[in-house]
Amino acid sequence: MHQHLHQLGPRRAGDFIRTQANLIQQLAEVSALLGSEHYPLISDHKDELLVRDQSYGDHAKPEDYLDSFNTFIRDQLNQSVALAVVVNLRAT
Known about the structure:
Elements: H1 2-8, H2 10-19, H3 23-33, H4 62-77, H5 81-87
Helix pairs in contact: 1-2
Protein name: Type I restriction enzyme EcoKI subunit R
């Protein structure tokens, strides 16, 4: 499409777009579908790993993340009955 409009030139491309009443809407619909589960983008080029990074959010080490999560759970126990039930389950 872009090649066709480029070949037409600015004035004729503008005329073409104006005569195609639903063109902009159709392009928006196609754009929304591309890359979705209905129309996934598939490429046959070779994959390449550019970077490998491990993140713990705002924390530098896994231990910091786990400590933060434990603190969150303890702070929320009093506010969430469901969470208290799960944390305090007795082994049967």
